[in-house]
Amino acid sequence: MPERLVDSFGRVHNNLRISVTDRCNIRCFYCMPAENVQFMQRAQLLSFEEIERFVKLAVPLGVDKIRLTGGEPLVRRDLPSLIERLAAIPQIRDIGITTNGILLAEHAQAMWDAGLRRINVSLDALDPVKFQEITRREGYEQVLEGIQEAQRVGFDPVKVNAVSIRGMTESEIVPFGKFARETGAEIRFIEFMPLDADNAWEREKVLYSQEIIDVLSQEIAPLKPLPTQDPTAPATDFEFADGIGRIGFIGSVSQPFCQSCNRFRLTADGKIRNCLFSLEETDIKSMLRGEASDDKIREAVRESIRGKWEGHEINTARFLQPDRPMYSIGG
Ligand code: SAM
Ligand code: SF4
């Protein structure tokens, strides 16, 4: 059995996030530029065969958990067939997707049938005007329909990711708390991170998890932490004291979870990144397309993980924003 993916801080990496495209059908301001995006060419993208080969060779390294992302993963044609290939790998015990939900109503059933069981839908506002302000596109109704359809098909819970931005999403906190209680969807508030294409992130724009906890506790009901939590999960999960409605918090800026990180990434153009914020990447695509053996590729992945930094350094003066924005890395 090849050596597992352990970094120099003892963190074991079993969780692979795979970006299947950098294209997207909306333009969230905290992720993409508004216009004139230079997307990857079709030939630059890993094919489903290449992704499948990579996952199979990563299994002996301990990878057993996968999340598909992008860009918007549902704009990649025939995505359910990739899910089916990955779900057929016996050691992969968990496959999830993160989607903006616009095309979800159309594809939820096919993805379920292909073996997908976890869905996170990104929706930052329940107010349609605010939705459009953030995404710079239409689509609010489709996202809500997508969430409903995913629930109908059997995804339980559907998790809803909401990026929290000071000066913009405060008015959404209570509606999301009520939405969690009324629909059974689990809301996860994510602190705004410096990964936007426009380099407009400022610390003053981060709406901190603790402030949201305080608002929900005062306006709806006290929140109590859930007892069983996955120590490697980025979210801290809570439930309203009356047992109705679950809310998670991803305090990437105020409470970094780097210490327990078990994730690494494969970009749509075949680069391994050992951290969202890493400034270096390892080109796997040229190895997959060249003569490289599985062992050689595994060694390159191990090497990348060995070089992982201790943490993201957002809270230090040394912090440098990576060249690739979120949509190009795969969030
Ligand atoms: N398009 C899909 C979606 O939006 O769900 C998947 C890709 S998106 C890059 C993955 C997640 O990253 C989304 O939940 C999105 O809200 C989040 N995200 C993007 N940019 C972010 C930023 N600057 N700070 C925090 N979260 C961000
Ligand atoms: Fe698209 Fe997702 Fe980025 Fe929004 S966060 S622009 S939906 S890739």
**Biggest sheet strand line-up:** 7-8-9-6-5-4-3-2-1-10-11-12
Radius of gyration: 19 Å
Q: If helices are DSSP runs of H or I spanning 4 or more residues, what is the number of helices? A: 10
| Topology, number of strands | 12
Bound molecules: S-adenosylmethionine, iron/sulfur cluster
What would you say the CATH architecture is? Alpha-Beta Barrel
Number of domains: 1
- CATH class term: Alpha Beta
Low-confidence stretches: none
Superfamily at the CATH H level?
Aldolase class I
Beta-strand content bin: 15-25%
Mean pLDDT: 95
Shape: globular
The rounded distance between the terminal residues' Cα atoms is 30 Å
Classification by helices and strands: alpha/beta
Main sheet characteristics: 12 strands, mixed
Précis, in short:
The protein has 331 residues and is an alpha/beta fold.
Write up what this structure looks like.
Helices cover 29% and strands 17% of the residues. It is of the alpha/beta class. The protein has a single domain (15-329), classed as Alpha-Beta Barrel (TIM Barrel), CATH 3.20.20. A twelve-stranded mixed sheet has the order 7-8-9-6-5-4-3-2-1-10-11-12. Helix 1 packs parallel to helix 2 and helix 3 (104-114) packs parallel to helix 5. The two termini are 30 Å apart. The model has no long low-confidence stretch (mean pLDDT 95). The structure holds S-adenosylmethionine and iron/sulfur cluster. Iron/sulfur cluster is lined by residues 24, 26-28, 31-32, 70-72, 100, 122, 326-327.
